[in-house]
Amino acid sequence: MNDIFKALNDPTRREILELLKSKDLAAGEIATHFNISKPSISHHLDILKRADLITFEKKGQFIIYSVNTTVMEDVLQWILTFKK
Amino acid sequence: MNDIFKALNDPTRREILELLKSKDLAAGEIATHFNISKPSISHHLDILKRADLITFEKKGQFIIYSVNTTVMEDVLQWILTFKK
DNA sequence: TTAATATTTAGATATTTGTCTAAATATATA
DNA sequence: TATATATTTAGACAAATATCTAAATATTAA
After folding, report:
1. Are A66 and A20 in contact (CB under 8 A)?
2. Percent of chain A at pLDDT exceeding 70
3. Looking at beta carbons, which residues of chain A come within 8 Å of B6?
4. CB–CB contact B79 A76 (8 Å)
5. Nucleotide C20: nearest residue by CA–C1'?
6. In chain A, which residues touch B (CB < 8 A)?
7. B44-66, pLDDT tens digit by residue?
8. Taking the CB of the first residue and of the last residue of chain B, which one, N or C, has fewer CB atoms within 10 A?
Protein backbone atom coordinates (compact mmCIF):
# COMPACT_ATOMS: atom_id res chain seq x y z
CA MET A 1 0.00 0.00 0.00
CA ASN A 2 2.91 2.27 0.76
CA ASP A 3 4.45 1.53 -2.63
CA ILE A 4 1.17 2.23 -4.36
CA PHE A 5 0.65 5.64 -2.80
CA LYS A 6 4.29 6.47 -3.39
CA ALA A 7 3.91 5.56 -7.04
CA LEU A 8 0.73 7.61 -7.38
CA ASN A 9 2.36 10.63 -5.76
CA ASP A 10 3.81 12.07 -8.96
CA PRO A 11 1.95 13.79 -11.79
CA THR A 12 4.13 12.22 -14.48
CA ARG A 13 3.47 8.73 -13.20
CA ARG A 14 -0.26 9.37 -12.94
CA GLU A 15 -0.20 10.65 -16.51
CA ILE A 16 1.65 7.52 -17.62
CA LEU A 17 -1.15 5.46 -16.10
CA GLU A 18 -3.73 7.56 -17.92
CA LEU A 19 -1.90 7.01 -21.20
CA LEU A 20 -1.83 3.26 -20.63
CA LYS A 21 -5.50 3.31 -19.72
CA SER A 22 -6.42 3.81 -23.37
CA LYS A 23 -3.63 1.81 -24.98
CA ASP A 24 -0.62 -0.37 -24.22
CA LEU A 25 2.58 1.43 -25.15
CA ALA A 26 6.30 0.87 -25.53
CA ALA A 27 8.64 2.72 -23.16
CA GLY A 28 9.81 4.98 -25.96
CA GLU A 29 6.27 5.89 -26.98
CA ILE A 30 5.50 6.80 -23.40
CA ALA A 31 8.62 8.98 -23.25
CA THR A 32 7.60 11.01 -26.32
CA HIS A 33 4.57 12.30 -24.38
CA PHE A 34 6.77 14.09 -21.86
CA ASN A 35 9.50 16.69 -21.82
CA ILE A 36 11.58 14.41 -19.67
CA SER A 37 14.57 12.29 -20.62
CA LYS A 38 14.10 8.60 -21.41
CA PRO A 39 16.13 7.47 -18.39
CA SER A 40 13.82 9.50 -16.14
CA ILE A 41 10.76 7.91 -17.72
CA SER A 42 12.40 4.53 -17.31
CA HIS A 43 12.83 5.32 -13.64
CA HIS A 44 9.15 6.28 -13.32
CA LEU A 45 8.19 3.03 -15.04
CA ASP A 46 10.32 1.16 -12.55
CA ILE A 47 8.49 2.74 -9.62
CA LEU A 48 5.14 1.90 -11.20
CA LYS A 49 6.38 -1.66 -11.78
CA ARG A 50 7.46 -2.06 -8.16
CA ALA A 51 4.02 -0.92 -7.06
CA ASP A 52 2.59 -3.49 -9.49
CA LEU A 53 0.55 -0.72 -11.08
CA ILE A 54 1.86 -1.69 -14.50
CA THR A 55 2.97 -4.90 -16.16
CA PHE A 56 5.27 -5.33 -19.14
CA GLU A 57 6.01 -7.74 -21.89
CA LYS A 58 9.03 -7.92 -24.10
CA LYS A 59 8.24 -7.71 -27.83
CA GLY A 60 11.53 -7.90 -29.71
CA GLN A 61 13.54 -4.85 -28.92
CA PHE A 62 10.50 -3.11 -27.46
CA ILE A 63 9.03 -3.41 -24.00
CA ILE A 64 5.29 -2.93 -23.98
CA TYR A 65 3.68 -1.61 -20.82
CA SER A 66 0.10 -2.08 -19.62
CA VAL A 67 -1.77 -0.73 -16.62
CA ASN A 68 -2.65 -3.29 -13.95
CA THR A 69 -6.15 -2.53 -12.75
CA THR A 70 -6.19 -5.19 -10.02
CA VAL A 71 -3.92 -3.09 -7.81
CA MET A 72 -6.21 -0.10 -8.28
CA GLU A 73 -8.80 -2.21 -6.51
CA ASP A 74 -6.75 -2.12 -3.30
CA VAL A 75 -6.67 1.66 -3.29
CA LEU A 76 -10.37 1.70 -4.09
CA GLN A 77 -11.15 -0.47 -1.07
CA TRP A 78 -9.04 1.71 1.20
CA ILE A 79 -10.82 4.84 0.02
CA LEU A 80 -14.19 3.21 0.42
CA THR A 81 -13.62 2.66 4.13
CA PHE A 82 -13.97 6.43 4.51
CA LYS A 83 -17.34 6.64 2.84
CA LYS A 84 -20.15 6.27 5.33
CA MET B 1 -5.43 16.23 -6.86
CA ASN B 2 -1.68 16.63 -6.48
CA ASP B 3 -2.10 17.83 -2.90
CA ILE B 4 -4.35 14.90 -2.11
CA PHE B 5 -1.94 12.25 -3.37
CA LYS B 6 0.94 14.05 -1.68
CA ALA B 7 -0.96 14.04 1.59
CA LEU B 8 -1.82 10.35 1.27
CA ASN B 9 1.79 9.45 0.53
CA ASP B 10 2.85 9.01 4.13
CA PRO B 11 1.96 6.17 6.50
CA THR B 12 1.62 8.48 9.50
CA ARG B 13 -0.85 10.72 7.69
CA ARG B 14 -2.87 7.75 6.47
CA GLU B 15 -2.96 6.46 10.03
CA ILE B 16 -4.14 9.85 11.26
CA LEU B 17 -7.01 9.63 8.78
CA GLU B 18 -7.85 6.14 10.01
CA LEU B 19 -7.89 7.40 13.59
CA LEU B 20 -10.23 10.23 12.66
CA LYS B 21 -12.44 7.82 10.76
CA SER B 22 -13.76 6.41 14.03
CA LYS B 23 -13.66 9.55 16.15
CA ASP B 24 -12.89 13.28 16.03
CA LEU B 25 -9.76 14.02 18.03
CA ALA B 26 -7.71 16.91 19.37
CA ALA B 27 -4.21 17.42 17.99
CA GLY B 28 -2.64 16.25 21.24
CA GLU B 29 -4.74 13.08 21.32
CA ILE B 30 -3.64 12.30 17.79
CA ALA B 31 -0.01 12.85 18.75
CA THR B 32 -0.17 10.33 21.62
CA HIS B 33 -0.82 7.57 19.07
CA PHE B 34 2.60 8.04 17.50
CA ASN B 35 6.24 8.01 18.52
CA ILE B 36 6.69 11.32 16.80
CA SER B 37 7.00 14.78 18.33
CA LYS B 38 3.98 17.04 18.52
CA PRO B 39 5.42 19.60 16.11
CA SER B 40 5.86 16.83 13.53
CA ILE B 41 2.27 15.72 13.99
CA SER B 42 1.20 19.33 13.69
CA HIS B 43 3.06 19.48 10.40
CA HIS B 44 1.31 16.33 9.15
CA LEU B 45 -2.03 17.83 10.15
CA ASP B 46 -1.16 20.94 8.19
CA ILE B 47 -0.49 18.90 5.05
CA LEU B 48 -3.78 17.04 5.50
CA LYS B 49 -5.52 20.39 6.02
CA ARG B 50 -4.04 21.85 2.83
CA ALA B 51 -5.31 18.82 0.92
CA ASP B 52 -8.68 19.43 2.54
CA LEU B 53 -8.64 15.85 3.78
CA ILE B 54 -9.37 17.05 7.32
CA THR B 55 -11.27 19.93 8.85
CA PHE B 56 -10.84 21.44 12.30
CA GLU B 57 -12.76 23.38 14.88
CA LYS B 58 -11.46 25.30 17.83
CA LYS B 59 -12.88 24.16 21.16
CA GLY B 60 -11.33 26.33 23.85
CA GLN B 61 -7.64 25.58 23.99
CA PHE B 62 -8.10 22.41 21.95
CA ILE B 63 -8.34 22.02 18.20
CA ILE B 64 -10.55 19.16 17.18
CA TYR B 65 -9.85 17.48 13.86
CA SER B 66 -12.26 15.54 11.64
CA VAL B 67 -11.78 13.65 8.40
CA ASN B 68 -13.39 15.22 5.33
CA THR B 69 -14.88 12.45 3.26
CA THR B 70 -15.94 14.66 0.36
CA VAL B 71 -12.36 14.92 -0.87
CA MET B 72 -12.01 11.15 -0.73
CA GLU B 73 -14.71 11.12 -3.39
CA ASP B 74 -12.35 12.82 -5.86
CA VAL B 75 -9.74 10.12 -5.42
CA LEU B 76 -12.43 7.50 -5.69
CA GLN B 77 -13.59 8.89 -9.03
CA TRP B 78 -10.05 8.98 -10.37
CA ILE B 79 -9.44 5.37 -9.39
CA LEU B 80 -12.75 4.32 -10.90
CA THR B 81 -11.69 5.52 -14.34
CA PHE B 82 -9.26 2.58 -14.37
CA LYS B 83 -11.89 -0.03 -13.67
CA LYS B 84 -13.38 -1.38 -16.86
C1' DT C 1 -1.72 38.63 36.49
C1' DT C 2 0.90 34.41 36.70
C1' DA C 3 1.41 29.63 35.68
C1' DA C 4 -0.01 25.63 33.18
C1' DT C 5 -1.66 23.35 29.09
C1' DA C 6 -2.45 22.89 23.95
C1' DT C 7 -0.87 23.76 19.64
C1' DT C 8 1.73 25.91 16.06
C1' DT C 9 5.75 28.29 13.95
C1' DA C 10 10.71 28.72 13.01
C1' DG C 11 14.94 26.97 11.87
C1' DA C 12 18.16 23.14 11.30
C1' DT C 13 19.38 18.65 9.37
C1' DA C 14 19.46 14.01 7.33
C1' DT C 15 17.01 11.35 3.92
C1' DT C 16 14.36 10.74 -0.15
C1' DT C 17 13.11 11.98 -4.73
C1' DG C 18 13.15 13.54 -9.64
C1' DT C 19 16.05 14.80 -12.91
C1' DC C 20 20.11 14.77 -15.89
C1' DT C 21 24.19 12.79 -18.80
C1' DA C 22 27.03 8.95 -19.90
C1' DA C 23 27.53 4.20 -20.27
C1' DA C 24 25.75 -0.57 -20.54
C1' DT C 25 22.63 -4.16 -22.36
C1' DA C 26 19.60 -6.28 -25.71
C1' DT C 27 17.59 -6.89 -30.08
C1' DA C 28 17.11 -6.12 -35.06
C1' DT C 29 18.92 -5.15 -39.57
C1' DA C 30 22.28 -4.34 -43.33
C1' DT D 1 29.79 -8.92 -38.04
C1' DA D 2 29.01 -4.07 -37.65
C1' DT D 3 25.62 -0.61 -36.93
C1' DA D 4 21.34 1.29 -35.46
C1' DT D 5 17.49 1.34 -32.29
C1' DA D 6 15.19 0.60 -27.68
C1' DT D 7 15.66 0.57 -23.03
C1' DT D 8 17.85 0.38 -18.63
C1' DT D 9 21.59 1.13 -15.19
C1' DA D 10 24.96 4.04 -12.82
C1' DG D 11 26.30 8.06 -10.71
C1' DA D 12 25.73 12.92 -9.65
C1' DC D 13 23.04 16.75 -7.96
C1' DA D 14 19.38 20.05 -6.63
C1' DA D 15 14.91 20.22 -4.55
C1' DA D 16 11.49 18.32 -1.52
C1' DT D 17 10.31 15.96 2.76
C1' DA D 18 10.05 14.21 7.61
C1' DT D 19 11.91 14.85 11.64
C1' DC D 20 13.81 17.28 15.66
C1' DT D 21 14.42 21.11 19.41
C1' DA D 22 13.43 25.70 20.87
C1' DA D 23 10.47 29.47 20.83
C1' DA D 24 5.97 31.74 20.03
C1' DT D 25 0.89 32.01 20.48
C1' DA D 26 -3.55 31.06 22.57
C1' DT D 27 -6.51 29.64 26.13
C1' DT D 28 -7.64 28.21 30.82
C1' DA D 29 -7.23 28.22 35.73
C1' DA D 30 -5.23 29.70 40.13
Report:
1. yes
2. 99
3. 9
4. yes
5. A37
6. 1-2, 5-6, 8-9, 11, 14, 17, 21, 67, 69, 72-73, 75-76, 79-84
7. 999 999 999 999 999 999 999 99
8. C
Query: If you write DSSP's letter for every residue of chain B in order, what string do you get?
Result: -HHHHHHHSSHHHHHHHHHHHH--EEHHHHHHTSSS-HHHHHHHHHHHHHTTSEEEEEETTEEEEEE-HHHHHHHHHHHHTT--
Residues of chain B with pLDDT under 50: none
Domains (range + CATH), chain B: 2-80 (1.10.10.10)
pLDDT tens, position by position, A3-58: 999 999 999 999 999 999 999 999 999 999 999 999 999 999 999 999 999 999 99
